Amino acid sequence: MSPRKLKEIGNTARALIPYGTTEGQTAKIVDVIADVIRDRGHTADAVDINGPSSTLPAGYDAVIVGASIHMGKHDKHVVEFVQKNHDTLEQLPSAFFSVSLAAHGDTGQAETYVDQFEEETGWRPDQVALFGGALLCTDYGFIKRHMMKKIAQDKPGNLGLDMSRDYVYTQWDAVKRFAEHFADRLKSTSP
Fold it and tell me: Which among 136, 130, 131 has a CA at the least distance from the CA of 168?
């Protein structure tokens, strides 16, 4: 996919970061992205989409959408949000990031998730990233711990199998580079 050229939007951009998370790792990633955007002199507003799709508020110059994979699919509320706001997203500088265990060791599968998302929504963001998620075993109940152990055993990428501890597979430097790249592309070339 070749990215569209981002439009120039002045000295300070206002970025919206709508996201969907199942267990909270995507929200942590959003916090880092928002901090980087702000450190680059822009405004960033993060919004957890945890209900029926809503309309993208007016006044934003750019959008970074994030969604986690759960049961092989991106968050349905994020899918609905993108479908409802497709035309606006196509007009703004945009990015999408997907959070999954597959991104840690099975990038082919992680890319398939993004392809499915793009097919389902019809949206082709300017920039896409895949970030590893987390196994937060100490937060899981007995049944979910065993279910996640089975999933971890079946996935490539050397996922942790000791269910008495947590595993974070997010590469924070990659998250920062993704956000820096997006924020830097928002800078105006005018003095």
Answer: 136
Strand, helix or coil for residue 57: coil
Residue 159 backbone zone (phi > 0: left; psi -120 to 50: alpha; other: beta): beta
What single-letter amino acid sits at 133?
A: G
Residue 115, both tokens:
């392809």
Percentage of the chain beyond pLDDT 70 is: 88
190 vs 10, 42, 101, 116, 187, CA distance in Å?
8, 16, 41, 38, 9
Whole-model pTM over 0.85: yes
Q: Which residue type occupies 16?
A: L
For the chain, which domains are there? 14-132+171-186 (3.40.50.360), 134-168 (no CATH)
